[in-house]
Amino acid sequence: MKTGVLCIHGFTGGPYELQPFVDYLQTNTDWKIAVPTLPGHGEILSLKKLTAENWMMAAEQTLRQLQKEVDRVFVIGFSMGGIIAIYLALRYKIDKLVLLSAAAKYIYPTQLIHDVREITKEAVAGKLEENPLFRLYSQKLRDTPIHAAFEFMRLVRMVEPYYGLISIPVCLVQGKKDGIVPFTTAPFLFEHITSKKKELIFSETGKHHICYSDDCSDWFSQTLSFLRQD
């Protein structure tokens, strides 16, 4: 059986947010992995006039193409990508979901803009010249319009009423030191998702960018075990 994996990055982010986990999966499996860049995202942001629907449709298009090439699909979503992953699971046949630092709770727009700045602070902590995320995030402070923040908030509101309709196997991973998505979000999702098969993994050292946590190798292996289970 040929397996495909769709990985969806977060708000103001890009594929690099998931890259360590993608590398791990590529090393340890023969699965076909798709990691699209959502409209307006990537290393250079261009979010003006884009809507939540633009981001959701882009993920849908990649999923549809992947489904043509494989027998089953897993979807992995980081932060906002986790919400899009839930949306896709409501509309399409997906075998399993992995939600990383999923931004599942309502966020006020002013707080969201503050959080974008906090992401930057988190990414550049330490010596800037040694931090691989610094160049990626230094420009985001200037390039995140309030309109885009509202669209992210609207996306969460659209999907939130349907968390209870998710019944496929789900694995949630949450960092205990996440300063962006509240620590209580993963337990909240775990409680509301009605899947009979669901797992909740906590990263003791994980901040929001969970794929770069010091203990990522631990939850990488746990998550892969979840995906491999029948």
Mean pLDDT: 87
The end-to-end span amounts to: 12 Å
How many β strands by DSSP? Answer: 6
The CATH topology: Rossmann fold
Oligomeric state, counting identical vs distinct chains: single chain
Total helices: the number is: 9
Please compute the radius of gyration using only Cα atoms: 16 Å
Strand order of the largest sheet: 2-1-3-4-5-6
In the CATH hierarchy, what is the architecture at level 2? 3-Layer(aba) Sandwich
Overall shape: globular
Question: For this structure, what is the CATH class?
Answer: Alpha Beta
The structure class reads alpha/beta
What is the succession of H and E elements?
EHEHEHEHHHHEHEH
Secondary structure: helix percent: 40-55%
**What is the domain tally?**
1
Explain this structure to me?
This protein has 230 residues and is an alpha/beta fold. It has a single domain, classed as Rossmann fold. The protein contains nine helices and six strands, in the order βαβαβαβααααβαβα. The chain has helices spanning 19-28, 52-69, 80-91, 109-123, 134-138, 140-143, 146-159, 185-192, 216-228; strands at 3-8, 32-34, 72-78, 96-100, 170-175, 198-203. A six-stranded parallel beta sheet has the order 2-1-3-4-5-6, sandwiched between helices. Strand 1 (3-8), helix 1 (19-28) and strand 2 form a beta-alpha-beta unit. The longest helix has 18 residues, at 52-69. The radius of gyration is 16 Å and the shape is globular.
